[in-house]
Design brief:
This protein is an alpha/beta fold. The strands form 2 sheets. It has a 7-stranded mixed β-sheet, sandwiched between helices. Strands 8-10-9-11-12-13 form a 6-stranded mixed β-sheet, sandwiched between helices. Helix 18 links the parallel strand 12 and strand 13. Helix 13 packs parallel to helix 19. The longest helix is centred in the N-terminal third of the chain and has 20 residues. The protein starts with 7 loop residues before the first strand and ends in a 6-residue tail after the last helix.
Length: 636
């Protein structure tokens, strides 16, 4: 049984009651479903039965796989016993299974013993299972020996399976009634919703040992003077602590929140009514729609509190070919000290910065990048980072990474999740002197190719991809995306690691991609492909290459300006808005010459004390202030 209280569901119902459709609706959001068919084909001349089977097949999505157990009724127990924890099985139905069980062609078979084996297999099944079965207990007792044998066997099977399952539903005329529920006592639940109940539950309900400790958060302030020899006023101590278990459960099929589906279109429609002299914001109207949907309002506000998460983790082996040893660690230390492009851009944007060390990845061409335990810990750690940000009032997360071999790891993840060819998604290797290193690029391609060959028979589940190919930075980034989605915090992606995490997060919670925004693809082929698969259209085409996180911070002021402008501009007068050229519309202060705006004060023109640098904010120069006073200008 799973930790969230239930793992298996039995759906009962009469003929044409809608039980199969209801069972299918329980798993409709699951990324992968294995459909276990138990019914025999029947008489080839029975067209009505063939039509029923065809209708069942037509309803199954193309992503489902089908497995049949009609030849051996005992095989159903084997299928359940061998199912993996990340699988979801839909067994339809036990009536067909009992029919095969009683068929003399499949004897010797002991219906009582085989039913007991099935119930035991359900109890020990590691996967989530939804079973469908006809409810025959409400019908008349059959008049034939064979009919009575069938109802007796099916009744015994239903009782045994219902006792083994965590939840039981009865469907009558298409309406489900829950006869037995697991951990929750609410209305009908779905497997994905039940998973959500587990993962979104406060960590106070668990007892992590020891308590998770997260890296320090840097609050950066722009330097007062540009001279490099002066002391840096933003530097603050920080450290990266080892990742530890928190007890949080992250598993496939989680149903996390979605952005408001109405607020986004309403905000974009509102833009067409604003009092602007031109055609409007162009492609940047998508920023307004995204912010409106994630904030749940048609007039979104510009993001105030922003936090940058810089994930530092190296990949060993051929994935890191062409990189200078220790360079990524130097970049991480530089950011911790409040120096370098990322820290300075964060300071200018008023964003806090958190540098996170992630587990180093083993050479993927030879062995898995991480152990399964490391993957679980990394996912939980990323989730906690997002929770910490949400608790601090952060309104936007910027996700970046610095590490040797991150591009190759992202290419391997894309090849495993989107069927990409490694050479097509691996960017050119540029040396410190600006030269192209084709030899290093070929080594990276070979490492990814060998890793894919090594894992060709491995499961392509989300956690398996992180363990075999992704590594610590992609795993932590995936946890950040999931945790941010659970707390309704949007994420601005920047670079291959964040996009690779977005690809992996689809199998864990498909809602995560709807909380992600991509400012610029940076000319990186892996980012372009992943963005296309995830449906994330880059807002800009600047082709910046300042490092992950820094590229997004360059675009952040523009995005904030767009949101601030869209919220502040009035509706055009022709559409019912106020004419702001009418002085009477601005209040008494606009016509009263004695009115003085209390917010308008004389600036301080004293020379700054360079021995103790102080942050300076934007404001008019003395000449500008004099001209404004002379023209009678007042802030409105």
């Amino acid at each position: 049984m799973s930790v969230d209280g239930w793992n298996t569901v039995l759906v009962l119902g009469g003929i044409r009651s809608g039980k199969s459709e209801f069972a299918e609706s329980l798993v409709t959001d699951a990324p992968v479903v294995r459909y276990v068919a138990t019914a025999p084909e029947g008489d080839p001349e029975d067209t009505e039965w063939a039509t029923r089977l065809a209708a069942h097949r037509a309803r199954r999505p193309g992503s489902w796989t089908t497995e049949e157990t009609t030849e051996d009724p005992r095989r159903l127990a084997d299928v359940l016993a061998s199912a993996e924890p990340n699988e979801l099985l839909l067994v339809d139905d036990l009536g067909g299974w009992v029919t095969v069980l009683l068929d003399p062609d499949h004897q010797p078979a002991d219906d009582v013993a085989t039913i007991a084996e099935l119930a035991e297999a359900i109890r020990g099944c590691a996967a989530r299972v939804v079973l469908v079965s006809p409810e025959v207990g409400l019908s008349l007792v059959p008049t034939t020996p064979l009919g009575r044998a069938f109802t007796d066997a099916l009744g015994a099977a239903n009782r045994a399976v219902a006792d083994a399952c965590d939840a039981v539903a009865l469907v009558v005329a298409g309406q489900p009634v829950w006869l037995k529920e697991g951990a929750t006592a609410a209305a009908p639940i779905t497997p994905t919703a039940a998973a959500t109940a587990a993962v979104v539950t406060s960590l106070a309900d668990t007892e992590p040992t020891p308590e998770v400790q997260l890296p320090d958060v840097l609050t950066l302030t722009p330097p007062a003077a540009p001279e490099p020899e002066r002391s840096n006023p933003w530097a603050a101590p920080t450290m990266a602590l080892p990742m530890v278990s928190t007890g949080l459960v992250i598993q496939p099929g989680m149903e996390l929140p979605m952005p408001d589906e109405y607020a986004g279109p309403q905000a974009v429609d509102r833009l067409a009514t604003l009092d602007v002299p031109g055609a409007g914001l162009g492609v940047l109207d998508r920023v307004v729609g995204f912010a409106a949907a994630t904030q749940g309002t048609s007039i979104p506000a510009a993001w105030g509190s922003v936090r940058v998460l810089l994930l530092h983790g190296d990949h060993a082996g051929g994935a890191s070919a062409g990189t200078v040893a220790g360079e990524s660690a130097r970049r991480a230390a530089q950011a911790r000290a409040g120096r370098g492009a990322l820290a300075r851009l964060a300071a200018e944007s008023g964003a806090s910065l958190q540098v996170v060390d992630t587990p180093a990845a083993a050479p993927i061409e030879n062995e898995p990048a991480l152990t399964p335990e490391q993957v679980e810990s990394a996912l939980r750690y990323g989730w906690r980072l997002a929770e910490q940000a949400a608790d601090a009032g952060v309104q936007l997360l910027v996700l970046g990474a610095c590490g040797a071999g991150t591009e190759a790891a992202a290419a391997a993840v894309l090849a495993a999740t989107a069927g990409a060819e490694p050479p097509a998604v691996l960017g050119r290797v540029i040396t410190e002197s600006g030269e192209i290193d084709d030899a290093a690029w070929m080594i990276r391609c070979a490492a990814v190719r060998d890793a894919l060959h090594r894992t060709r028979r491995s499961s392509r589940g989300a956690k398996d991809i992180l363990a075999e190919l992704g590594g610590g930075d992609v795993a932590v980034a995936t946890g950040v995306l999931l945790g941010a989605t659970a707390r309704r915090v949007p994420v601005l992606l920047d670079g291959p690691v964040g996009l690779a995490a977005g690809m992996v997060s689809r199998d864990l919670a498909g809602q995560a991609r709807h909380w992600c925004l991509l400012a610029d693809h940076g000319g990186h082929p892996a980012v372009r492909l992943a963005a296309d698969v995830l449906g994330l259209t880059p807002l800009l085409d600047l082709r910046l290459d300042l490092g992950e996180g820094a590229n997004a911070l360059v675009a952040l002021p523009l995005l904030r300006s767009v949101l601030a402008l869209s919220a502040a501009l009035p509706v055009h007068p022709s559409l019912g808005g106020t004419d702001d050229t009418d002085p009477a519309a601005d209040g008494p202060e606009s016509t009263d010459p004695s009115y003085a705006d209390p917010d308008l004060t004389e600036p301080d023109y004293a020379e700054p004390d360079y021995a103790e640098p102080q942050p300076v904010g934007p404001g008019p120069t003395s000449t500008e202030a004099d001209e404004q006073q002379a023209s009678g200008w007042r802030a409105g």
